[in-house]
UniProtKB/TrEMBL annotation, chains A, B:
This is Diphosphomevalonate decarboxylase. One of its GO terms (molecular function) is diphosphomevalonate decarboxylase activity. InterPro entries: GHMP_kinase_C_sf, Mev_decarb, Mev_diP_decarb, MVD-like_N, Mvd1_C, Ribosomal_Su5_D2-typ_SF, Ribsml_uS5_D2-typ_fold_subgr. It comes from Grantiella picta. Pathway: Steroid biosynthesis; cholesterol biosynthesis. NCBIfam families: mevDPdecarb. Residues 195-298, 323-405 form the Mvd1 C-terminal domain. One of its GO terms (biological process) is isopentenyl diphosphate biosynthetic process, mevalonate pathway. It catalyses: (R)-5-diphosphomevalonate + ATP = isopentenyl diphosphate + ADP + phosphate + CO2.
């Protein structure tokens, strides 16, 4: 016991969380130089990484665990973050030997866990590096703005340094060192907005997103047009929709921009495919659902209200106002945006369209979802061709905060011995 | 017997064939007005429709059979073709009552058959209307240029009025009446060029191509850029590649343009998907096959020859010279271009990658294909993740002629009684 207490005293530990981010206006960079992953506008949901960083004079080597599995701590991106936080700490101490401060020469242990599926297109590396840098900064008492440091881990990590809605600004320098992320609106700005992640596959994505995007920059003529002409206009529109909490505008633009991003992936040579047949099923389901409510909620033939059609937007016919909107990042999972009062019905539509194989009671996770009865008309119009078991589960979440310090010591991922706690 | 002979004497009949067409530079129109289907550059393979048109004073009504099944002859597009050919015939006769000529008041019977799968993205309606107009013109003794008439049936039919390589020229009039098709090179121009159609599904395509394209014109910002900036340049390049029989240039541009066309479909709102997971398999297979031969045929590190990589075209690294090239029209079937000496090996690669379910001996149809032994290196590098039964069969063909008159009376699709012959 005495030895354990001595070890505990010698151990300094800090735990932080950081959110993943979901792009609502997606990648459109035309330069190859870093930052490689340029999503102009993202949303941080309550899906997060938790990271504990610990330092001790008793540790004999740096070690790293991801989701309980030990990884190579020598990864250049991890080392770059570690080096940079230590540099800031050294600078802060002004070269003086502060004996009360944690020694920068101690070895460190790092443990990191996600509350969402890893590497399936949910910006897990962004959350991971944002969280790593936050925990390290806390450990070493660094209070500087950390976006720039986090970017050394992942080009997109700076976006996970804020909650709510985050805009990435590119800067002027060719090396990207003056690019930065800004919070457009905090997580409390739009209380009714909900996010449903349809987790359709635990598989790793086939092409690393950085390699894919570099190839797009080099080979896609459409990406160039998108970056130079389309996105600047869409970015301004989307900021306005968010400011005004205009779900129709927000949802429609999110769908269009997701589709256009994947179009530029397809225009890459060789082409990159993130959307699968199942993604197409989800996309078609969302359009059928919106079309059904477009028909039923808008009185057809009412003065000034044009007739709407399901599969064809004729000239001068305004688009169907969406009840739900989809977006797909560099992976097969579908992200659905909806307002809170739509969630229960749409979740039931998803459950009917992708009947759960075995885990029926764990099909919906995250925030609670009420029950909803579907009208026969809705089922007939929307629930066509069910695909059993195709959706593993639904994560129900909403906009969340940026990196947070975890005060409760029982939440540390490392135990008093500096090793990962065994999880029940 | 006497009655039958009398009926036969009263019956006038003509049979023609017309080819489908495969777009090598694809749809990029920005106007909604007709012609709706603007494929700037196409190839006519030896896949064709055969149509017999017959007229008799004994017929009591107009009738139409497609692939042996009676259809509604009142279809507006069929009627438009019929009306237009009769108008040309009347004009030709100059109003004089030529008693030797077939009466324009007789009812007609039409039978049409395809030697390829119908409505699976192989421009079957183009071939069908080109063939209908050719057979009707022959029946009525019309010898005018018929592209304009065929266009009343299908916007793309004018391209099936020629063999070899066909360019569509748009004209200036908003109604499209001065647009026309021109033969760029005859079917004999490139004797080594081969076409493999991987028939992956007999299903009908989910969205009619005209509706899809109109929606694209209205909603896709990328289509506008493609039409105004990208395609004019690509069209000139492709004409040059064809003129010079440059397979590397031809193949690479065909693949890129197919991908970009499908990108604009995805940028349409709601999005249009013609490519499926199986299309992605075929695309990946072609890239692996080309990469393998890019590695083996180009000595790596040879002076002036840059290293090539499979999945990433780095800056200043010229693309891998293709041995095979894919293109997809508005349907799931893959079309592969290759030179004759590549066909046997690639067909064997397809057979290994999509092992035939039952019809192993009918897996390859059309022109004969030699046998090929695959090296273990090729199999290891290219034949990954076989998908049994996914490809129904392969059609092996090559550039073919435009509409042809069928002289042999035994080839008429209608019998002496004016009804479809029963096929053995």
């Amino acid at each position: 016991v005495a030895a354990a207490m001595a070890a505990e005293r010698a151990l300094t530990m800090a735990t932080c969380t950081a959110p993943v981010n979901i792009a609502v206006i997606k990648y459109c960079e035309v330069r190859i130089s870093p930052p490689a992953e340029a999503e102009p506008l993202t949303l941080s949901p309550q899906l997060k990484t938790t990271t504990t960083a610990a330092a001790s004079r008793d540790f004999t080597e740096d070690r790293l665990w991801l989701n309980g599995k030990e990884m190579d701590v020598g990864h250049p991106r991890v080392q770059a973050c570690l080096r940079e936080v230590r540099r800031l700490a050294r600078k802060r101490r002004g070269g003086s030997e502060d004996t009360a401060a944690l020694s920068l020469s101690y070895k460190i242990h790092i443990a990191s866990e996600n509350n969402f599926p890893t590497a399936a297109g949910l910006a897990s590396s962004a959350a991971g590096y944002a969280c790593l840098v936050s925990a390290l900064a806390r450990l070493y008492g660094v209070e500087e703005e950390l976006s720039e440091v986090a970017r050394r881990g992942s080009g997109s990590a700076c976006r996970s340094m804020f909650g709510g809605f985050v805009q990435w600004q590119r800067g002027e320098r060719p090396d990207g060192t003056d690019s930065l992320a800004l919070q457009v609106a905090p997580e409390t700005h739009w209380p009714e907005l909900r996010v449903l992640v349809l987790v359709v596959s635990g598989e790793k994505k086939p092409v690393g997103s950085t390699a894919g995007m570099q190839t797009s920059v080099e080979t896609s003529p459409l990406l160039k047009h998108r970056a130079e002409v389309v996105v600047p206009e869409r970015l301004a529109q989307m900021m306005k929709h968010i400011q005004e909490r205009d779900f129709e505008g927000f949802g429609q633009l999110a769908m269009r921009d997701s589709n256009q991003f994947h179009a530029t992936c397809l225009d890459t040579f060789p082409p990159i495919f993130y959307l699968t047949d199942l993604s197409r099923h989800v996309i078609a389901l969302a359009h059928r659902y919106n079309a059904h409510h477009g028909h039923t909620k808008v009185p057809a033939g009412a003065p000034g209200v044009p007739q709407r059609r399901d599969t064809f937007l004729g000239p001068h016919v305004p688009p169907i106002p969406p009840q739900v909107a989809y977006t797909f990042d560099a992976g097969p999972n579908a992200v659905i945006f909806a307002l809170a009062d739509t969630v229960a019905e749409f979740v039931e539509v998803v459950r009917r369209s992708f009947p759960p194989a075995t885990n029926g009671d764990q099909f919906v996770r995250g925030l609670p979802v009420g029950s909803a009865a579907l009208s026969p008309e809705l089922v007939a119009a929307v629930v066509t061709e069910p695909v059993p078991g195709a959706v593993q589960y639904i994560l129900h979440t909403k906009p969340g905060p940026g990196p947070q310090l975890v005060d409760d010591p029982s939440q540390h991922l490392l135990g008093a011995d500096g090793l990962p706690r065994s999880r029940a």
